[in-house]
From TrEMBL:
SMART domains linked to this entry: HTH_MERR (SM00422)
Annotated source species: Marinobacter adhaerens (strain DSM 23420 / HP15)
InterPro entries reported for this sequence: DNA-bd_dom_put_sf, MerR-type_HTH_dom, MerR_fam, Tscrpt_reg_MerR_DNA-bd
PANTHER family according to UniProt: HEAVY METAL-DEPENDENT TRANSCRIPTIONAL REGULATOR HI_0293-RELATED, REDOX-CYCLING DRUG-SENSING TRANSCRIPTIONAL ACTIVATOR SOXR
Keyword Transcription: yes
Gene3D superfamilies according to UniProt: 1.10.1660.10
Coiled-coil segments: 88-115
Pfam families tied to this protein: MerR, MerR-DNA-bind
Tree of life domain: Bacteria
Name by which UniProt lists this protein: Transcriptional regulator, MerR family protein
């Protein structure tokens, strides 16, 4: 990193990206973020590229990608001249996982609605929901 380039301390980078310093250091430790250079006083210094990479990680996490998936996406993103087919495949895979989770959540929603409709308001001893969850029904 050239010293004339804007640098960020971990605190400033955390403020600007919305990612906690401990998480930034973790991403650095597991290799999602390159090792920061150190100032003469030992502070980590990050470049604009690190800021952009952290935003990429944060947005990817927001879409439900695992850290391993993000590592793969970052690796693909670093190969500027390659086909984006690998990225497309990774996004399609994530989309299928989201759709599967939505299907499961809808099934859960319907079961909870069914359980809720069983409630007659009495006392716990006569509670149909507790009875159903206990397997006694």
């Amino acid at each position: 990193m050239m010293m004339s380039e804007k640098t960020y301390t971990v605190g400033r980078l955390a403020d600007d990206t919305g990612i906690k310093p401990v998480t930034i250091r973790y991403y650095e430790r597991i290799g999602l973020l390159p090792k920061a250079i150190r100032s003469d006083s030992g502070y980590r210094l990050y470049a604009k590229a690190d800021y952009s990479r952290l935003l990429f990680i944060r947005r990817s996490r927001g879409l439900g990608f695992s850290l391993d998936d993000i590592r793969e996406l970052l690796s693909l993103a670093d190969r500027h001249q390659e086909s984006c087919a690998g990225v497309d495949a990774k996004v399609e895979q994530q989309l299928e996982q989201v759709r599967s989770r939505l299907k499961d959540l809808r099934a859960m929603e319907h079961e909870l609605e069914r359980l809720s409709a069983c409630c007659e308001g009495g006392v716990i001893m006569d509670c149909r929901i507790i009875e159903t969850l206990s397997g006694s029904a």
